[in-house]
Each structure stands twice: as structure tokens, then as C-alpha cells.
Sequence to fold (926 residues):
Amino acid sequence: MDDLIADFVAECREMLEALGGEIVAWEAEPDDRARLDSIFRFVHTVKGNCGFFEFPRLEALSHAAEDALADVRAGRRHPDGHLVSAVLAIIDRIGEMIAAIDAGEEMPAGDDSALIQALAPGAETIAAPASATVVEGQPRAASSPRTIRLSVELLDRVMSTVSDMVLARNELARRLRESPTEVAVDGAFERLSAIIADMRDAITRTRMQRIENLFVGLPRMVRDLSAELGKQVLVDIEGGDVELDREMIEMIRDPLTHIIRNAIDHGIETPAERLKSGKREIGILAVSARQSGNQILIDIHDDGRGIDGKKLVAKALDVGLLERDEAAKLSPREQLALVFEAGLSTAKEVTSISGRGVGMDVVRSNVERIGGIVEVDSKLGQGTRMTLRVPLTLTIIPALTVSIAGQHFAIPRSAIEEIVRANGESVTLEHLGGAGIATIRGRRVPEVSLSDILGLKSEVDENDRRLIVLRPAGGDLYALSVDRIHDHEELVVKPAAPAVMATGLYAGTTLADDGSPILLFDPAGLAQVGGVKLETQERSARVAEGPATAASKSTAVLLFRALDGSRRALRLAVVDRIEEVPATAIKKAAGQLRVQVGDAILPLAGASDAEFGDGKVRLFRLNDGAHEIGYAFAEVIDFATVDNDIIHAEWAGEISGVSLINGEPAELVDAHWLFANHVGVMARTAEQMICRLPSDDPWMQNMLRPIVEAAGYQVVGDEHEGHADLVIAAQGDEVAGDAGKTIWLRTDPDAAGKKDESIYRYDRAGLLMALKTAGAGRGK
Amino acid sequence: MNELLLVVTIGGERVALPAAAVESVVELDTLIPVPRAAPHVAGLSALRSRVLTVIDCMRSLELGTSDCSDGIREAAVVEFDGHHYALIVDLVEDVVEAMSDAQPMRAAMGEGWERVSLGMVDTETGPLLLVDVAALIAGAAEAKAA
Fold:
């Protein structure tokens, strides 16, 4: 909190300094719109921040000044002499208070109501307060951490010098290798190298910050705001680990705050209104950051009442911002974009939180100043999505360097799902009609060859290449084949020249350690040029759950043929996986059919006892989070979505209704009924399973343990004497004691051979699968 | 004060670049190609930890391709729109003072030259064609698309 206040103070001081000249000029020429706007922005920013920091006096002052200035901006009031001096008196008082906050002192005593009253139209001109000078040069409180503010330009210069130093070091290293040198010289050089590396890290870090630093204050702000407004808002934050230039973070702090205030104040309705319109009482505000190409995208999405484009247009006509014939031509998108025009708001009442929509023009000008874009998308009654796109200049990206035909390129690591060898054991590569399809552990993904995209000739045989499975921002998986994979590096990425960006393939350029330039790929662009069809996935499916979405008609289902031959569909979400068991594992016991899978006995649905021969039976394992049941079926037909109306069954039962799926009717299985009827009698499946991890391996304890625990295991250390259901060990280690099953982990991505059953330790999917099967097959 | 001009040779022709636009003259040794980029983008190079986009002026003027096989090329480094470019030229000669403002050329020039010409300037060594750096960087394709 303290450093937030320090930031606030510093920002206000800067603005006050910049404002010094403006105020004087405004006094001379009260009609000057640009000056009025910048003064207005100042009081607006102060007001916004004070609400957050609980400086009620500052807030009252700035709110009063903002009100008066808004009137002037809207043309309701003429800026006469004593309005100007009243505003100036308030700005001076704000300056005093900020100086006091900075010095850690009590607020200067005094009553502000006289100042506020002076703003009222027709008020007496007050005498300028005697103490109306900004107190400068107060000694800082000794306890605060010592910081200085530096110009970014200076940091840039230091950074570029350090980069030069690295290059010079590399040159020296090459020379040293070429000529015989003494060990002592080598030692000294090593030390120098290490110091330079440290320094480079440090100087790089001075500019970079995780966007988390910006997000960390949001939950509190949302909580306070929603409490004040009597609303219930749940904030969902994602992507805090995206790194952004420190300066950039400072630049988007205000716009982001404004947008969130607006979303809570104007977007999200009160609980009563929400219930009335069929939504859940709690509004959801989702804030996420991600990197897309050479930009950082920050999405702020609320599920509130949305923005009415028509009202905006009407308002714009009212204020004279638009001509009538222009207005008629606006597309819905352009109508929404009116929200960023100055002095326009559809909010009926003015509140102290976000005022009258004034924030949005400030937001846009702030974002555009740093070369960013702010976009708005809104559906009336369903919510609003604001997207800030800011450039990624000087952003550090962890990247993987790869090569093709001898040339090096970089791929942002954030987009990489996994890396496999084209001829690896669980990978097959096929060509259908010239298009490549890679099947990786049973999953089919389109495959494109980097050498084809770039038109370079690769000297590596197709089967010896590596496949990089990529997930571009908001898109679907595809595999990219490259000749070789080199290294993970942290790269300082700069935008490339327009002629290079025009290819659509690259996100920027960077310099390798030896000083040669490397191009950074944009995974989405590669896919596009490579002809991969990407389907963008909407996040809204996840954001909006609950009764409101029952109305949304598209549901993913698994279409299958039941044992009695009927065509049925089950909601995909309840199907855990598919199992195959011998028919003998199915018994009628304790009043119903049950199936033995591993050593769990699950109730079995979807079948009557007469239907099994001697062969195998396939069944879905359904999971409601606490219980499992089996559902026998004959064959899987397809994955599908239910887009048509559902004709509901008249009686509650296994089938909840019927609907047209892929052109033919299919019965929808009511999973709820299944669980209600089959599980009711069954006790909770099992006690918690025990997994033993080496206690002295920090990787296992820090990285692996959370995953294992999330999979439902109780984790114990080496000292645990009793039986463990599962032991996880590094490849080559000894496993002692009583163990049910052992998972071996290796550090090398590639298996030593076909017999090697160990799992690469970052193969998350493989690990999870092993954890689950180990749990299911317990005691076998 | 008269404008200073950098006299360079492109495709055997002596032309002038506004010296104020040119940051430095360098000899490029590394050249990293940019696959799929416009033909006049010869590649990337680095100068003092800055990435330079290397423009082949011959190609930009549709006069053929500069021969980069011997490895070292002379280039003029310019900054345009926040990006640094290296313009590959045959030869960098000298800096001279312009004796006149740019005059429109009334004789017909080659298509490439026409596109980049800012006019003709008089110097001590005779009249020279003044070349627009931005047009060189934009290259042939964009000019046609526009």
C-alpha cells in the first residue's frame, strides 16, 4: 500500500508541475478548451485515486472541482473569473495535502467547505488562502524505502550500453579462445563475464514488471467499490505473469482503473436487477492479460447490462457531436465506439465512482499516447468487453530458439504446448491431400512445415525433425515442424520494420548473445500463412455459467449408440473417460448392476443384465466431482453440439428429452437422473490415496507436489513407513518400501528407448494421466 | 545555410541523399535473411545492439540485385518512423553542399528513379538526383499497391 501511495503522490506531483503553466494560461483565457481539459483530467485522476486510498477530504475537493468543470465542459456554465479562482484555490489545497501525505504528516488542519462552496455559481469570490503555495522540498519520512525516479531515456541508454558490453565480452571471449592464455586470465575473464551477466539481468529487470503488480490492487478496489454501490461482484484475474515494460504498466494503470470503475458502476447491475433479468446475483468481472503477437491484450469483461449503442447515438446527437445523416450511417461497432467521445454518457445519475462517462475519453487518449488501442464490444443485457491493446516494445519474452536450413528463429514460449520428435513413439505423421496431420498420443493436430512456410530448403529429413505443438493466443493447436531446437532464452523483443511485419509471420526482432539479429515468430501468423484453420474460442462459455446460460443453446455432447441400438447423447462435461472391461466384471449386486473397474465398483447404467455376452463391454466413466458411475454403450458416433430445441420428456427418467443432432433425432441422457438414481445408495468411493515423494528433492516438492495433491493424493515423504499407493521417483533412483505403483520421471524430453516407461517431467498431460491411472488401478 | 548531401552510387548512378537523414555509414558483414519479406528487404543486420533492416536499393529501384556475395557491403544507416534501416549502395563517395533547392526533373527517368526522386539539385560536381529515403524504404511493391 505504501508504495502505491508513493506512486500516487509522485504522479500527482508530476501532474501539478505540468499543470502549473496551464493554470496560469487558463486564468488568462478561460475559454481555452485544451487547457480546461487537462485541468479536468487532473482533478478527475485525483478523485479516482483518492477513492481508492481513502483520502476523503481530497476526494470531496476533487469531486467538487470536477463537477464544476464538467458543467463548463458541457457548456452549461461559463468559466468566469471567480470560478477560475475557486478551482485554482482547490488545486492549491490539493497540492498542500499531497505534500503532507508525501512527508507522512497529518493533513493540514482546516475546513474545505468554504472552498467547495466558492465553486457554486454566483458565490462570492474568496480571498486566495494565505497558505496557497505548494510545500516543496519537505524532508521525506526516513522509514520509507529509498527510491529515486529516473527518466526512461536514461535507463534505455544504460541498457544499450550494457548490451554493447555483452557484445564486447563475446568478442573478447572469441579472441581468448584463439590465443593461448594463462589460467589466471581465463579465471578473471569468467568473473567478468558473470558480473556482466548479472548486470544485464539487473538492468533488464529495472524496466520489466509482471503485470501482476498492476492487478494486485484490483480485488481490493473491486471489493470496496461494489460494497459502496451495494453490488456483488466477483473478480476473476488471469495472466498476471505477462511481463510488461514498467513504463507501460504505469501508463495503463489509470485507463484500467477507469474501465473497471465504469464496469462496476455502470455495467454490473444491483443484485435485485440481476435476478429480475434472470442472471445470477453476483456479477462477474473478468480481467485477463495475454500476449498476442507483438501486443499485450488486456481484456476487461463484465456480465452486466451492456452498452446501448442507440442511446449513445441519441446522446451524441443531443450534444451536437454528430450530424443526423452521419449518425444513420454508423455501424453497431461505431455506435459503441462513441463511448470514447468526450462528454458523453448514458448513465442517468452521476455518482462519485466513475462520474459521467468522462473517464472514457481520458482512457482513450492515455492508451493512444502509448501507441495502444482500446476497443469496446458489448451486447445489451449481456455484458461489455473492453480490450486494451498495447504494444510490446522492450518486452522480455521467454522464447525457444529453433533453426531451419541453418537460420535461427525464436518462438514465444507462452504459445508452446509441447515438443515431440517427429518419429517419436507416440507420434505419427501423415499426409492427406498434401496437408500434414500429426497424431500425438491419439490427438490429431494439423501439421505445417516451417520450411514450406518460409520457402527455405531443409536438409533434415522429415522424420528427423522436431514437432513443436503450438497454441496461438485464442486459437487451436497445431504442430510446426522445425529442423532443430536449440535453447530457451529470454529475449528482449523490439518491433520490426513495417516491411518485415507485413509478412504477418513475425512478432518482432531481437538480438542473440553473439549480436546477430533473430526474428521472433508470431504463432498465429505462422498458422495463417501455413493455411491452418484456427477456430477462435470464446471465453464467455467459461465466464458465464449458472442459470442464465441455460438459455444458451449450444452444448457440447458426445453422440453414441446405446446397447439397445438407440442414438443417444451425453453432455461431454460429465464424461470422464472411456473404459473397456470384460463382461465378467459386470455383476448384479445389492439390487443393481455394478461394474468392477480396477478395484473400484461403480454402479452401471445404460444396460439391463441380459445384454452381455462373453466379450468386452465399453463404458463411459461419468463423474460428477464426487461420485462415479459407469454407462455402458455400443459405439461412439461423434462429438456434436446441440443447437436445436430440446423436446423435453414427459416423465423424469434416464432420458431427459430428444433433439435433432447432426440432422437426426437423438435422445439426451439425463446425467443428473443417473447420478440421483445410481449413486444415492453408494458411499463415498475411497479414502484418500497416499503418494510418496522424495523429501530431499526440491523440484519434486515445489513443482510436482501441487499437481499430485490436486490429483487427490495425500503426499508423504521418504520417512513414511507404511504402504504408499504411488511412489514418484527420479529415473535411476532406488525405490524402497511398500509401494503400489511407481512413476519414474526423466529430465530428458526423449525416451531412452521403447522400453523406457518413464515420463518426461514437464509432460504435464502424461503426468496427469499417469496419476489418474495409478489411482484407478490401485492395488492391482 | 545550404543543405548537406551524401553522394552515393546506386546501380552505377551518382545520386544524393539528404545528409541530415543519414546517421552513419557502415560496412555490413552479417546479413540475416527475412523469409517471405518483400524482395527489396535484403535482411537484418545489427549495429551497436540495434537491429537494422537492410534495404537493397538496387531492388527497391527495380534495377537488379546488389551483389552481396563478397560479404561486406557499404550501407547508409537512416532512421525512419522509429526504425533503423541500412540502405545498401554501391559506393559512398562524399558529403557535398547543395547549391540550389531541388528542382523538378522534366526529362523522363526510369520508373524506379521516378518513384524515389525528390528532384534535381546543383552541386559543385554538377547536378545530382535527390533521392527520397522513405520511398527507397517503401520499395516497389508498396508503391504499386498504393
Observations:
- Confidence is low (pLDDT under 50) at residues 125-144, 348-357, 535-553, 681-686 of chain A.
- Chain A has six domains: 2-117, 152-208, 212-391, 406-529, 553-678, 689-776.
- Residues 2-28 of chain A form the longest helix (27 residues).
- The longest strand of chain A covers residues 283-292.
